[in-house]
Amino acid sequence: MLSLVPTPIGNISDISLRSLEILSTANTILCEDTRVTKKLIHLLKERHNLTTTEPQFFSLHSHNEAEFVSKLTPEFFNANVVYVSDAGMPGISDPGQMLIHYCIEHKIAYDVLPGANAVLTAFVASGFVQTKMLFFGFLPHKGNDRSAALQEALFNGYTTVLYEAPTRLEKLLGEIAIAAPTRQVFLAKELTKRYQRFYRGVASELIPQMEKEIRGEWVVVIEASEGKSASLSEQDILALDIPKKAASKLIAKITGENPKECYTRLMKS
Fold it and tell me: Is residue 229's pLDDT more than 60?
């Protein structure tokens, strides 16, 4: 069978007893970086008395995931196969979902263990009382894609969680300061590690605090916008008293559909 096992995001003691049990019986370990996982296994042997069956290690990361899964056969899972990401929960901004999909398609038994996760840890630590949350992962780096994604993250009506690289954190805060100057933002640095830090305030207040704190891994939690989401559905647009040609252009703009194909579809409906 396949087991997806979360690994500590900073503090080695956050490994669970179930994770140790599964790792101890693993015949094959799929991992983002074999060096990182082998180092983790070594630490777990030293500090938590992990014993293993000397498993085989295979690299499975975002760049080779599709090719790796395409070459799998069901017999691969006759052994105890474990997938771990470098840190945290597999499948959350890390590979894992394609493996699960493969198992579902081929009726292969699988299990997903609960464990350390930066998204949920930061969401709870933020103290924002809005319990509905959206996770956006990393925003696009630049251009119109970034602008559109940031607008969606800021004005979707939910508490929104992002990952951000230290090299772009100040840029992100500057963008939020302009687009939503009164919105509360929570920053979590190096979660569960020795230098874990929490910051909360409007973006313009947080920027000066980042001068000496910019290094490290960051999770950004943005307070929910007031009121309903600013997004429009196709039904909202069709309810407007506008020509179908104009409606098709608006629908194509928000969905990515080809405008001509959208217009043809609307004319047939």
Answer: no
